[in-house]
Amino acid sequence: MIVVLTDLNLWALGGIGLVAGVMGSMLGVGGGIIIVPLLTLVLRLPIHVAIGSSLVAIVATSCTATYLYAKDRLANIRLALLLGTTTTPGAVTGGLIAAIIATPVLNVLFGLVLAYIAYTMMRRGSLIAEDLASEEASIYPPKSSASSLSSSLAGSFYDRHLSQTVSYKVNCIREGLSASFFSGILSSLLGIGGGIINVPVMHLVMKMPMKATIATSSFVIAITTAVGALIYYYYGLLQPVVLAPLVIAVILGARLGSELTQRAASVLLRRIFGVILLITAALMFLRAARII
User: How far apart are CA 87 and CA 82, in angstroms?
Assistant: First the structure.
């Protein structure tokens, strides 16, 4: 199936890509929650073209952000590869489930899930500024009975905002792998990438610092969305006239977003992420009611 597009506003595509690149890399969500709605609602692109373009843009954003985060040792590469072993099968399973469940039911169900996660993220983000210096050490303490696997996944990075090195261990690995499988399912059902689920899982369940969570999520997203992008390419749904300005802009935005993440307070990042989740949940409810 080949789709031919004309009369595209290249400046609008670039603007969408820039915003998505900044927000996607800054929060570890890839930017699909911004790209797909804007391409379909503002530029009136076919939904399948929008999703395929979004997947390619997410790969570009995630790879750029991961490279920058890896240089500063923010991304936990070993954990990302481990989570990819369950997230990818979950994404395939989610695609199969989506074919037998009514779309309005899915929208309501996952709108409720996202709203609950948003509440949890924003509640944790209510720590006062004076507690920031001790937050990374007190919220993410290594368990005394940690397994050798947990120890091998331990990481550290220099937090520019706190002006100190933060060390951490990854807790609840089995729970995290299970949750990662379901995040793959949810990401396929929602069609907006897995970062919006992966970030809360790693932060709230596996007890990782927010900045390490965002960086690691970027790597996981790059793995899972690349396969989807290839499928859309096979069906002729990737349009160079859309991808060229979009990808260039998201790469530039990803560089800026990665820099903002390293300089921002973890509490601020949690609050922004919570707001993004609430907006996405609202969109799910509106779609269920056939308003948009």
Answer: 9
Q: Which residues contact 8 (CB under 8 A, 6 or more apart)?
A: 43, 241, 242
| Opening angle at CA 101, ends 121 and 89, nearest 5 | 65
Give the burial string for 21-31 (b: 16+ CB within 10 Å, else e): bbbbbbbbbbb
| DSSP-assigned states of every residue in 143-194 | PTT--HHHHHT-EEEEETTTTEEEEE----HHHHHHHHHHHHHHHHHHTS-S
Amino acid 198 reads N
Q: Angle at CA 146, nearest 5°, toward 142 and 149?
A: 110
pTM over 0.90: no
Neighbours of 170 (CB within 10 A): 26
The two three-digit tokens of residue 104, written as one number: 């309005």
Amino acid at 31: G
Quick check: 165 and 159 in contact, CB under 8 A?
yes
Please compute the mean of the pLDDT values over residues 4-13 and round it to a whole number.
72
Can you tell me the distance from the alpha carbon of 170 to that of 208, in angstroms, rounded to the nearest whole number? 6
Could you read off the pLDDT of 186-226 as tens digits, one per residue? 766 665 667 777 888 888 888 888 889 999 998 888 887 78
Domain ranges of the chain: 10-288
Q: Mean pLDDT, the chain, as a whole number?
A: 78
Residue partners of 96: CB distance under 8 A and separation at least 6:
none
Q: What does DSSP assign to residue 125?
A: T
Is residue 216 a contact partner of residue 65, using CB atoms and an 8 Å limit? no
Asked if residues 167 and 73 have their Cβ atoms less than 8 Å apart, the reply is no
